[in-house]
Description:
Layout (H helix, E strand, L loop, with lengths): L2 E6 L5 H11 L4 E4 L2 H9 L7 H24 L3 E5 L2 H11 L2 H11 L7 E6 L2 H11 L8 H18 L3 E5 L4 H12 L16 E5 L6 H9 L3 H8 L4 E5 L1 H16 L7 E4 L2 E4 L3 H21 L6 E6 L6 H8 L2 H4 L2 E7 L2 H14 L12 H8 L4 H4 L4 E6 L2 E9 L7 H23 L1
Parallel strand pairs: 1-3, 1-4, 2-3, 4-5, 6-10, 6-11, 7-10, 11-13
Antiparallel strand pairs: 8-9, 12-13
Amino acid sequence: MRHVIFEGLPAAGKSETxxxxxxxxxxxxxxxxxxxxxxxxxxxxxxxxxxxxLTKAIIAELPKRREQVKRAIAEGKLCLEESxxxxxxxxxxxxxxxxxxxxxxxxxxxxxxxxxYVRFEIPVEVSVVRQRARNTPRFFIDDPSLKAxxxxxxxxxxxxxxxxxxxxxxxxxxxxxxEIQRTxxxxxxxxxxPLDDTFDIILLLGRPAAGKSExxxxxxxxxxxxxxxxxxxxxFEALDDFPILWEKCxxxxxxxxxxxxxxxxxxxxxxxxxxxxxxxxFLIRRLNQQVAQIISHSMGLSRKTLIIEFSRGGDHGYADAxxxxxxxxxERAVILYVSVSFEESWGRNxxxxxxxxxxxLLTHSVPRAEMEATYGTDDWFDIAPAPHGMIxxxxxxxxxxxxxxxxxxxxxxxxxxxxxxxxxxxxxVWKKSTA
Length: 435
């Protein structure tokens, strides 16, 4: 997300929460105060008795606010805005302010539409008690007006088909703030975290059960500062084409249950085998779409790393897959290939399936014949014969490193050495290529 608006009843905690986010995430978020209140205070307008004057002042302020939102997004920050004019319209209807109601069609066309609205849910009674406690009578809204406003606001969201996320704001503050962080996908970064030399995109490749998921899990469990300093990885988002593939296989189950033919797969001893080879290109194209959306929403990958995980097999599996990636990915990417033999991949896959049998996405074991047909041949060493270096993909030189991940280890010290050595090597190649 690149633009989110907080809404809620008076004294729900919007201003206080935004102040905390601005303080602890100064490089990630840009906070914009409530437009109506800001204009009223600056122009010394009484929000109840000077409604026509307030409406004119709001309209005059819209170009500036629109530019503020645009600039925040262009800087690669998450723009967080307090309240919105849909709320003000709901108040106008509740208070009988025809001036703003008549002007709203002109106003709405000038507004920047956010990716989501986050509503701080508290009871009306709690809002009234909190308003009295903070002693700001010029902004006090009574119980009947709040209830009328809420009714109008619910209708506004339905009318505009908004992405509305509701969060309970009447509970333990630490629990509430944790949910806000999760919703906004914010991770705290200390000022000493060296994010300038972190990767933009890592293509995480290797046979099934080679250790790709374990690598991502390790990064999740590592502090942001250490992840950046030791592994050159900023706060990251992981993409994997396997859930896309799994979804298509489940769709096949639905087609089959309707008496139709399966489109992509067939059943294979409780799991699936892919029958439509076009699926492999489809998965890459879908990843291209996902990455394009992320880059568009963040106006780049400032202070963020994308980890894109996939496996391929066959005489030209990786060569074909890499050639289908978009230039936006290839120009920003390094490749970490996690190397295990086919026999090691098969053995780990069977062990993983037995351990987590029918418990989720990791249960994607298939019969050995199917596994050999898909992953028995691997062209990685044909296109990247050296331990590390550069490969040319559609005219773009992409740094890579091959990390041997045999024998299997769960020892954190062993894994740290493998990860650190590999990522240091590919970072060295990457820095030389961009020097």
